[in-house]
Specification:
Blueprint (H helix, E strand, L loop, with lengths): L1 H22 L2 H23 L8 H12 L13 H4 L7 H35 L3 H25 L11 H18 L2 H19 L9 H19 L19 H4 L9 H12 L1 H19 L6 H17 L19 H30 L4 H35 L1
Length: about 400
């Protein structure tokens, strides 16, 4: 079973590397460098203006840690057919799951250490935490994550005491209690309590292997985890294994009724309905818009808000380009008396409306936060206008032509 997990892990990492190469392309890496550098500069300047004794500092830190501890789930890498083919070896699956647990714990701990490093200066400045306090906090975070994964481990088995697999208890209530004790009482007390709990949880976990597996729950959990991973990759590239869904959104009918039903608007009708009703594409557009707006609401400066606006506008527009080919596999569209010129113009029109809506939201957010900075206000308006026009009428046609050549090979 250990060899089976190693083989699946190798295949899984190969697949992840394939998508990561597409995600971290030259453009995105460049945008990421500017984004991290800008946020780091803003963070360092903000720390200089803070002082100890701020009442909301521990509340904010607890909130960030609670969100951060949710990152990193139990990766079992099980598949749907395992319920049939591995059922005769169910008693050996405990060794498979322990290997999966160790892999998941290493990844989760790396993530938690990064979050701790980012928060460390803020905690030192606002809460006057000593070096030993910070390491006690780190121990609490890592042990809480181990407890979190232990609860997920127990969830894979049909244990008698269902509270040991209670997600709400170990994901939210216990971390909230430990962090509250650490920040409002003593850091070492929180660390000691988490150590005692993980000790009890680890000893108790040795008895789970003798119980029957809950195959359906285990497979559903892994499918949900991979669906989340594929959704992230789908922000940057097409993921064939991600099945889309269509939803009827009646509250948006007032937008669609404005399309004139004439032959020249055939693809305009298809693209507008498709993007609004497609769960993946519509959700992608909405999520990126919300994330970009939240960044802009908390960023204040002269050039950084402008750069963030342009970066997020580019990312949103770039993710919409593959939808141009969405209807190519539908045989009926090829019998329409519509030329490719009409298709391109209709797609550009849909993109223009979508990006103008996003640009307006971003501009309002930037102006509301930086209303005293004339350079920022003018820069964001002019920059967004130039980028939208250049992206739609210069970049998109070339990108689509390149995509058509690659599809014809």
């Amino acid at each position: 079973m250990k060899q089976l997990f190693k083989k699946r892990l190798a295949n899984h990492l190969t697949e992840m590397m394939k998508y990561l190469r597409l995600v971290f392309n030259d453009y995105f890496v460049l945008a990421l460098v500017f984004l991290i550098g800008g946020l780091g500069y803003y963070y360092s300047n903000a720390l200089k203006q803070l002082h100890s004794g701020i009442w909301w500092a521990p509340l904010l830190t607890i909130g960030v840690l609670l969100i951060g501890i949710q990152l990193g789930r139990f990766a079992t890498l099980v598949q749907d057919p395992d319920y049939v083919f591995l059922l005769p070896q169910e008693s050996e699956m405990v060794y498979y799951l322990r290997s999966a647990y160790r892999y998941s714990l290493v990844l989760a701990c790396v993530t938690q250490v990064i979050i701790w490093i980012v928060l460390m200066p803020f905690v030192q400045v606002t809460l006057l935490a000593t070096t030993s306090d910070l390491f006690y906090l780190l121990a609490s975070i890592l042990l809480l994550k181990a407890i979190w994964l232990n609860a997920d481990f127990a969830r894979k088995y049909r244990v008698k005491s269902r509270w040991v697999a209670n997600r709400f208890l170990f994901r939210f209530l216990l971390p909230l209690a430990i962090f509250t004790i650490s920040f409002y009482f003593e850091y070492w007390v929180g660390s000691l309590l988490t150590f005692l709990i993980i000790l009890f949880s680890t000893v108790n976990s040795w008895r789970w292997g003798i119980r029957p597996l809950d195959w359906r729950t285990m497979i559903d959990d892994e499918n949900n985890r991979m669906h989340t991973v594929y959704q992230f990759f789908n922000l940057f590239t097409d993921v064939p294994s991600l099945n889309g869904s269509v939803r009827r959104r009646r509250y948006l009918d007032w937008l669609l009724r404005r399309i004139r039903l004439i032959p020249e608007n055939t693809y305009l009708y298809l693209y507008a309905h498709g993007i609004l009703r497609d769960h993946e594409m519509g959700g992608l557009y909405f999520r990126l818009t919300v994330i970009g707006t939240l960044f802009l609401v908390f960023i204040k400066g002269e050039m950084l808000p402008i750069a963030l606006c342009l970066i997020f506008l580019y990312l949103i527009g770039f993710q919409m380009i593959p939808f141009y080919f969405h209807f190519d596999d539908n045989a009926f569209v090829h019998i329409y008396p519509v030329t490719n010129d009409h298709q391109m113009k209709n797609f550009q029109r849909v993109l223009l409306i979508m990006l103008c809506a996003v640009a307006t939201i971003f501009a309002i957010a930037v102006i509301a936060i930086n209303y005293t900075n004339v350079v920022t206000i003018i820069g964001v308006i002019v920059g967004e206008l130039l980028e939208v026009l250049a992206f739609i009428y210069l970049y998109v046609p070339r990108r689509i032509q390149r995509g058509q050549r690659s599809r014809n090979i």
